Amino acid sequence: MGTHYSGTEEEIAALDVYIKLSRAAESVTQRINWHLQEVNLTISQFGVLEALYHLSSLQPGQLAQKVLKSSGNMTLVIDNLVKRGLVTRRRRTDDRRCIDITLTEQGSALIKDIFPRHVIGVVQTINALSRDEQQQLATLCRKLGKSGEQRVARGELGLASGV
After folding, report:
1. Can you tell me the distance from the alpha carbon of 68 to that of 80, in angstroms, rounded to the nearest whole number?
2. Do β-strands 87-91 and 99-103 pair in parallel, antiparallel, or remain unpaired?
3. Which phi and psi (to 5°) does residue 102 adopt?
4. Is the backbone of residue 40 left (phi > 0), alpha (psi -120 to 50) or beta?
5. Dihedral, 84, 85, 86, 91 alpha carbons, nearest 10
6. 26 occurs within a structural domain
7. Do 57 and 81 reside in the same domain of the chain?
8. Mind listing the pLDDT tens digit for each residue in 79-128?
9. How many domains does the chain have?
10. pTM score > 0.85 for this model?
């Protein structure tokens, strides 16, 4: 189902694509991340564990950038992971202003256990597309994402002039 908006042809086409992209992203996210409910993790918590698993310790701001969350949200996510004993906060000895977030043994064991299931979910879901289609989608997503970054860098907030 597309938009019910009755604007210009350009507006309707863009809204239709946006709706399809949003629905596809939500559907894919739900299918890939079903296994997180079994271990009582949110997608953001999983993202933090996965980033630490692959990149070692990181600072909260770095984690926020990796999982595309605000610093305020990241504080809550980290707080909840600390409460569960899955990560620790450690103040750096060389710069007391900096805090490193690190996996605990329990956190490391959990992500090692669930990450293979995550990979299986990703592969099964993405394999609905041929290899060529996967490459095309990756290219289009990169182009769409980069165009937004460039507009923000130029100070364009995505709003039409006069709106």
Report:
1. 18
2. antiparallel
3. -135, 145
4. left
5. 120
6. no
7. yes
8. 999 999 999 999 988 888 889 999 999 999 999 999 999 999 999 999 99
9. 2
10. no
